[in-house]
Design brief:
Number of helices: 7
Largest sheet: 7 strands, mixed
Radius of gyration: 18 Å
Strand content: 25-35%
Shape: globular
Structural class: alpha/beta
Helix content: 25-40%
Number of strands: 11
Bound molecules: adenosine-5'-triphosphate
């Protein structure tokens, strides 16, 4: 589903944001990308979303190489992906319903189809009662759930979430992860970037650690996350 082969990303002359990254995320998987600030997590997600392109290496998304993709083909590939940005990027002067519907309308859906999808997703994230509200009247966790709903508007095969729990307290963060699990259980492949190692451990998914742009470790919990003996290094 997502394949990265020897991917390097250098900004300017010598800022190596990603160094020789090999990552394979299979269809239906939920994978955490963990690492400290500046490790390269957002850059990696942006490369998958074709927001940036690698300096060298190969990236395949849904079997299509992104590296030499023509600019006009990028929006079509992006429609197979949903992305939740760190700062949500909701349109401030539009209602929640409008924020969501716009995504479907731009993708060519009818107003009725867009409305139906908005209703379905607001129900999923528990915010049906906020449809006519503007983002500034919502809490951080509510805005985060709207951002997640928006990312799902076009039924993406892949959901990319960049620090989806960054502005949330512990309980809200757990709810957000639960929602990601629910989305994943419905068949969407999910890749979550976080600097919150505890969160990744508790989720128990395959976790890939980035440090200074390199993948330095990868593990998957077998059973209980709190028991180191149950953690299998892969
Ligand atoms: N557009 C850019 N231009 C120049 N440097 C950049 C750009 N984007 C990222 N970087 C640099 O690349 C490195 C990796 O940044 P990135 O945002 O991918 O890390 P991160 O792991 O997501 O960090 P954080 O957890 O703080 O969001 C950092 O040194 C950052 O300053």
């Amino acid at each position: 589903m997502i394949q990265m082969f020897h991917v390097y990303k250098t900004f300017g002359k010598d800022l190596e944001a990603l160094v020789d990254v090999d990552l394979h995320v299979h269809k239906g998987e939920m994978v955490f990308l963990a690492g400290p600030n500046g490790a390269g997590k957002s850059t990696l997600l942006r490369l998958i979303f074709c927001d940036e392109f690698p300096t060298s290496g190969q990236i395949l998304v849904n079997g299509r190489t992104t590296v030499r993709m023509k600019p006009r083909a990028i929006p079509y590939l992006r429609r197979t992906m949903g992305i939740v940005f760190q700062d949500f990027k909701l349109l401030r002067n539009r209602t929640i319903e409008e924020n969501l519907a716009l995504v479907a309308l731009v993708a060519g859906k009818t107003t009725i189809q867009a409305r139906q999808k908005v209703a379905q997703l607001l129900k999923l994230v528990g915010l049906s009662h906020k449809a006519q509200t503007v983002p500034s009247k919502l809490s951080s966790s509510e805005q985060q759930r709207v951002a997640m709903a928006r990312a799902l508007m076009n039924d993406p095969l892949i959901l990319l979430a960049d620090e989806p729990t960054g502005n949330l307290d512990a309980e809200q963060a757990t709810d957000a992860i639960r929602l990601l699990f629910e989305i994943n259980a419905q068949g969407t492949t999910v890749l979550v970037a976080t600097h919150n190692l505890k969160l990744a451990e508790e989720a128990g998914c395959r976790t890939v650690f980035l440090k200074q742009g390199r993948i330095v470790e990868e593990w998957q919990r077998v059973n209980r996350p709190t028991d180191p003996a149950q953690q299998k290094r892969v």
